[in-house]
Amino acid sequence: MNKYLPEGELENCPSDISGAQDYIKNGTIAEAMCVLCTGEHDLIVDLGFIKGKIRRNDGAVGIDDGTTRDIALISRVNKPVSFRILGFEKDNSGETYAVLSRKLAQEECIQNYISRLKCGDIIDAKVTHMEQFGAFVDIGCGIPSLIPIDLISVSRISHPDDRFVIGQNIKAVVKSIDDGKITLSHKELLGTWQENADKFGIGETVTGIVRSIESYGIFVELKPNLAGLAELKPDIEVGSKVSVYIKAIIPQKMKIKLIIVDSFGNDKKEKPSDIEYYITSGSLKRWKYSADGADKTIVTDFGCQ
């Protein structure tokens, strides 16, 4: 069992001084809420029975050499952080506080977990923030990794928030490892063309989301890894939820022909649908998206160079 979980998932903290001493003796990684980032960018953590301090250079791997920016510390306020307890000191008013190190917890996570990952390994991750180009996720003890937008799903999206929400626990697969930097993929866990197409039948009317409008038709997402093409229709916008009639399903061409029946507008405030995973554990060597006998073959080979 992986004990190096994304921050917010460990739920492991001593309840008193005696318990904290055991954590120190055993080198146990703990987790608690960060309540303040000082002007010096030290993190103040509430352990419940006592306050703890994570000094700036112990706040994250890479802070001391500048490879990690201080925003990585500032952004932890009101969020859980992982750490090792180093000992106890007294502040200027004589009050005892715990000395903590998030950096040591991250270094242990890298040594015992992240450095052992291989391409194709399926792991747990938590979405921390999103940019136009992809979703950043915590893969253990606050260590970040990126899922590029084109690897989130087969169905193209305009922004990662079409698929994810901040704080969401997801599965991901290791796509590449470059000098210790891990890039993840997500689409291979969402099912093949056939697995998704089997959820639908000709003659059904179902719900979809408009993902793009081209001169020759409108692409409607039926599932994250499955889209169909509908005939052009006026007053349809990208992002609109629509009801579509399934006119044809053609495995050889991996095409689904649709007719838009109705449109329900574009509501970006609507939470993305829950993710249905077809693979949740283990390791992938090769994943084939295309249907058997299809005119073209679409595969992902997992093999770090």
Return Rg in Å: 23 Å
What is the percent of helical residues?
Answer: under 10%
CATH class of the largest domain: Mainly Beta
Instruction: Describe the sheet with the most strands.
Output: 5 strands, mixed, barrel
Q: Which fold does the CATH topology of the largest domain refer to? A: OB fold (Dihydrolipoamide Acetyltransferase, E2P)
How far the N terminus sits from the C terminus, by CA atoms, comes to 28 Å
Total domain count: 3
How would you explain this protein's 3D organization?
With 305 residues, the protein is mostly beta strands. The chain has 3 domains: 17-112, Nucleic acid-binding proteins (OB fold (Dihydrolipoamide Acetyltransferase, E2P)); 118-189, Nucleic acid-binding proteins (OB fold (Dihydrolipoamide Acetyltransferase, E2P), Beta Barrel), CATH 2.40.50.140; 193-263, Nucleic acid-binding proteins (OB fold (Dihydrolipoamide Acetyltransferase, E2P)). The chain has helices spanning 17-26, 71-74, 102-112, 193-197, and strands at 29-37, 43-46, 51-54, 80-90, 96-101, 122-131, 134-138, 144-148, 169-178, 181-185, 205-214, 217-223, 226-230, 241-250, 255-263, 286-288, 299-301. A hairpin with a 4-residue loop joins strand 2 and strand 3. The relative contact order is 0.11. The mean pLDDT is 95.
